[in-house]
Amino acid sequence: MTDLSLYKKVNINSSEGFLKPIFWYIVNHLFFTHHFFPFYGVKKVLLVAFGARIGKGFVIKPAVNIKYPWKLEVGDDVWIGENVWIDNIGNVTIGSNVCISQGAMLLTGNHNYKSETFDLMIKPIVVEEGVWIGAKATIAPGVTCKAYSVLSMGSVLTGDMENHSIYQGNPAVRKKERTFNS
């Protein structure tokens, strides 16, 4: 039986102090989560100022919600589409040449439904080189999307993907190999 009165709040950002998360919340609200601010360069500068590591050629569309930029690492030539939610209470690492399409969700935290105290569980997400995450797809905590794999739109990924593979469904399963035209 779950008893939420026993839940022990975890201080996820104890090393970041008190003010940094508050300032980020304000900046995220003003410059990232709204549709009216599409300037990639300014967004990159703000993310880096808050501790994100961002490569060159970074494209981030409007209405993207990033929980904690200091837990985000992004390679070169990465595209992040409208309404993406990177709920990174744990680390998220995104390799180069990755496309994360509209409305996708990357979730690094979950609760232990088997625990009476509903404990928070945090696991990182790794998205390797050349991966494409389809629109409205969801990635669960602790998952690695191996190089050049594809997660089809609307799919829910709860386990690691193989290299050069296409995954689809809820839960997502491998459907076929991803091949490239020469």
Tell me about this structure:
By secondary structure, the protein is an alpha/beta fold. It has a single domain, classed as Hexapeptide repeat proteins (UDP N-Acetylglucosamine Acyltransferase, domain 1), CATH 2.160.10.10. Helix content is 13%, strand content 29%. It has 2 helices and 19 strands. The strands form 4 sheets. It has a 7-stranded mixed beta sheet with strand order 2-5-8-13-16-18-19. The longest helix has 14 residues. It is globular, with a radius of gyration of 17 Å. It starts with 18 loop residues before the first helix and ends in a 5-residue tail after the last strand. The model has no long low-confidence stretch (mean pLDDT 93).
Rg, nearest Å: 17 Å
Largest sheet: 7 strands, mixed
Termini Cα gap: 57 Å
Global morphology: globular
Low-confidence stretches: none
List keywords for this structure.
single chain, 182 residues, alpha/beta, UDP N-Acetylglucosamine Acyltransferase, domain 1, 7-stranded mixed sheet, 5-stranded parallel sheet, 13% helix
Q: Which SSEs are present, and which pair or pack?
A:
Elements: H1 19-32, H2 40-49, E1 53-54, E2 59-60, E3 65-66, E4 72-74, E5 79-80, E6 85-87, E7 92-94, E8 99-100, E9 105-107, E10 109-111, E11 120-122, E12 125-127, E13 132-133, E14 138-139, E15 144-145, E16 150-151, E17 156-157, E18 165-169, E19 172-177
Parallel strand pairs: 1-4, 2-5, 3-6, 4-7, 5-8, 6-9, 7-12, 8-13, 9-14, 12-15, 13-16, 14-17, 16-18
Antiparallel strand pairs: 10-11, 18-19
